[in-house]
Every structure is written in structure tokens, then in C-alpha cells.
Amino acid sequence: MKAIILVGGAGTRLRPVTYEIPKPLVTVKKKPIVNHLIEFFARYGINEVALIASVAHETDFMRWKDTWGRELPIPIAQIDLFFEDKPRGTFGMVPSLRNWIGDKDFVLSNGDELKDLDLSRLIAFHEAQMPLGTIALVKVEKPQEYGVPVMKGDYIMEFLEKPENPPSDYVSSGLYVLSPKIIDYSDPKKEFVMIEKDIFPVVAKENKLAGVKFDNARWYDCGSLERWEKAIKEW
């Protein structure tokens, strides 16, 4: 199985740090966040990874490959960099990677989060149930700060964005196992596509979006200065 990591975000909530450093390259325990994600995937046998980055950060990521290549658990030759010339959202560039993805299920992950959960369980569920997408759901203390799924059994009916009274403590971890068929749900006329807003709601209405709950996952959103500091202290 292959994995795609989204590393093209502007990181506005981490400024002024991200004026100088792309968000996925900020460090936790003196190691870039993207390194932690690659190590996470490698533990579960995923050894082909693609990073989708902004062309504005091309120099930064080429330097990252040169600096960290020997310390990564995956051969650097098996880590591909793809650059978007303008913001494309969390799914806008994925269809252009169709040939790289191939005809097998793949993993898609945000690049600004630390994750430690049983990925093999997520993949096994997806392969057994065969939805178009399966989302890893993690339990958090303040679900009202995130998107909270409304579930019917193992399937997601909809997401409530930052609800005042969340129906559960589970939120999307920004980690998905996807069928390549989900690419067909992306409007080829749109350059900016968000998987959370443009793809998942349509798939959910067709009862093809599943969720797996993880009670004891370690998960840190590093998207703001406060959350990044928490990750540094606790990871």
C-alpha cells in the first residue's frame, strides 16, 4: 500500500514560524513532523510515500530530503515529491497522481499531525467492508473544536463542524484509507478541492464512508502554536 502526505498548507496559525519553515517541517522532539509520519507508515509496512507540497517550498523540501534522507526508515528514492503551483486544497492534486496511486487502496494523511494508532486495524476494516473511504476517528478532550461525525453503525452519515454540543468525543484524525475509485468523485473542472467538504459529504450520502474508532490513539494536531507546544511537551 502507498501513502500520500499533504504538506502544502500555508500554516497561518503557526506564524511567524511558518514564514520561514513549512508547517510539516517544524520539529517535535527535534524531528520534523513529516518524519514522524513516515516512520509511522513504515512501522506498518508502507514504504512508498508521496508528498504533495507547494512549489513555493520546493527548495525547503529538497533540502529536507538531502538532510534527513539517511535517517528515514524508507529509502529516499521511494519518497516522491509533487509540487502544486497554487493552492489546490486537500484533494485537488490527488487525481493527477492517479498513475502513481495505481489500482489499489491507498492512505491519505494530513501533514501537520502526529499519529500513533493501529493502522493495520484501519486497513483491515477497509479491506473487509470495502467502502470508498475509511476514516480513523480519535477520541479527544474538546471535540467541539473539530469536525465530529454522526454515525450509523460503522458508517458516517455526516460531519458536524465544531458543534456546540458534539454527539460524541470522536473526531477525524486526518488519516484515511481510500479506494482509488474515490478520485472519480472529484470534479475535474475544479482546481481547488477539499476532501472534507467536496468529497466526503457526497460519499457519505451514498453510505460509502466508514469510520473506525480508536480509544487509545496518540494524536496531536500541531496546527497552532498552542497545540504544537502541547505536542512537543507530551509526544
The gist of it:
The protein has helices at 33-43, 58-68, 98-101, 119-129, 195-205, 225-234; strands spanning 2-6, 27-28, 31-32, 48-54, 79-84, 106-110, 113-116, 133-139, 147-152, 155-161, 170-178, 209-214, 218-221. With 235 residues, it is of the alpha/beta class. The protein has a single domain (2-234), classed as Spore Coat Polysaccharide Biosynthesis Protein SpsA, Chain A, CATH 3.90.550.10.
Spell out the blueprint of helices and strands.
Layout lengths: L1 E5 L20 E2 L2 E2 H11 L4 E7 L3 H11 L10 E6 L13 H4 L4 E5 L2 E4 L2 H11 L3 E7 L7 E6 L2 E7 L8 E9 L16 H11 L3 E6 L3 E4 L3 H10 L1
Parallel strand pairs: 1-4, 1-6, 4-5, 8-12
Antiparallel strand pairs: 2-3, 6-11, 7-13, 8-11, 9-10
Task: Write up what this structure looks like.
There is one protein chain. The longest helix is centred in the first third of the chain and has 11 residues, at 33-43. The model has no long low-confidence stretch (mean pLDDT 94). The chain has one domain (2-234): Spore Coat Polysaccharide Biosynthesis Protein SpsA, Chain A. With 235 residues, the protein is an alpha/beta fold. The protein has 6 helices and 13 strands.
Keywords for this structure?
single chain; Spore Coat Polysaccharide Biosynthesis Protein SpsA, Chain A; two-stranded antiparallel sheet; 6 helices
Structural class: alpha/beta
User: Rg to the nearest angstrom?
Assistant: 17 Å
| Tally of domains | 1
Output the number of helix runs: 6
Query: Largest sheet, described in full?
Result: 7 strands, mixed
What is the H/E order? Answer: EEEHEHEHEEHEEEEHEEH
How many strands in all? 13
The proportion of strand residues reads: 25-35%
Helix content: 10-25%
Low-pLDDT runs of 5+ residues are none
- CATH fold annotation: Spore Coat Polysaccharide Biosynthesis Protein SpsA, Chain A
For the termini, the CA-CA separation is 27 Å
By CATH, the superfamily comes out as Spore Coat Polysaccharide Biosynthesis Protein SpsA, Chain A
Read across the widest sheet, the strand sequence of neighbours is 5-4-1-6-11-8-12
